[in-house]
Specification:
This is CBS domain-containing protein. By secondary structure, the protein is α/β, with parallel strands linked by helices. The chain is built from ten helices and eight strands. Strand 2 and strand 3 form a beta hairpin. Helix 2 packs across helix 7 and helix 4 crosses helix 5.
């Protein structure tokens, strides 16, 4: 199956997911998500290749310490400090349940870091934590016996009254100098939409959203096209831009024009190897 066919098949499969309404912007949203996951997967593979695997070694629970930035950093090496939100919204560890709910609702947030008096991040309180608390208060008895340890813990935590007793701890956080790709890998693995950003003493300095990581990792179609035309067509193949037509839509590159038969495979391969390119469609006529 070609890359274009694979992309089309994936798109069709997503359209036919049961119980979901396909919104007008859903195709673009799904394509952006696939490009994001591809960047995350590439980062994960690179990290695995850089360190020896020790069986039985536990997975790290936080992002690595700050990395030195090489000359001419790529988007993946861009530090979190350049895409994080400052100041960060947080709640004090003593804030009561109802005040937390009002804060998240007013600011349209799904979660917020919990901090102590010195701004050290203690954990994160989320809508899920509040929902469990609300469920406990809404009923006097369970619908059945609780058999799993996780549910016991959830019920016990839901009886808390303040942020420090309702939060999930420890918080999964990153540092300001953590590369965007590493933060994206951590957010994807942890299924988090927002990551607290802390300094070397664990104090809150910002929050980075998953959408900000996505936007930092993925170049838009215009920039992809510019790289194809300037670096590949003009510099490597030494052709006029007008000799080859390039159209990019959500990372899929359509190539058209008339070109020497021997050059076509190499051109398509070079384009396909560009980061953020989802697929390449060959409309080139061989001469």
């Amino acid at each position: 199956m070609s890359e274009r066919e694979h992309h089309a098949a994936g798109s069709e499969a997503r359209r036919t997911l049961p119980g979901r309404t396909w919104r007008p912007d859903e195709q673009q949203r799904q394509d952006m998500l696939m490009r994001y996951l591809g960047a995350v997967a590439a980062t994960s593979a690179a990290r695995a290749a850089e360190r020896p695997q020790t069986f039985g070694e536990p997975e790290p629970q936080s992002a690595p310490l700050e990395h030195p930035r090489p000359e001419g950093p790529s988007a993946a090496q861009q530090p979190v400090r350049e895409v994080m939100d400052v100041p960060a919204v947080s709640v004090p560890d003593t804030m009561p349940f109802l005040d937390i709910a009002r804060t998240l609702s007013r600011l349209h947030l799904s979660s917020a870091p919990v901090v102590d008096a010195d701004d050290h991040v203690l954990g994160v309180v989320s809508e899920s934590d509040l929902l469990a608390k609300a469920a406990v208060e809404a009923t006097e008895q369970h619908s059945g016996p609780i058999g799993r340890l996780r549910e016991h813990r959830l019920y016990d935590k839901a009886q808390g009254e303040t942020a420090s007793t309702l939060m999930t701890a420890p918080a999964i956080s990153v540092h300001p100098g953590t590369p965007v790709a590493d933060a994206a890998w951590l957010a994807a693995r942890s299924r988090l939409k927002r990551l607290p950003v802390t300094d070397h003493k664990g104090r809150l300095v910002g929050v980075v959203r998953r959408i900000a990581l996505l936007q930092a990792l993925i170049r838009d179609d215009a920039k992809i096209r510019e790289e194809i035309e300037s670096r590949i067509i003009e510099h490597e193949f030494r052709l006029d831009r007008g000799a080859v037509g390039v159209h990019v839509t959500n990372g899929v590159v359509d190539v058209e024009g008339r070109l020497d038969r021997s050059l076509i495979p190499q051109l398509l391969e070079e384009i396909g190897e560009i980061g953020d390119v989802v697929g390449v469609v060959d409309h080139v006529t061989a001469i």
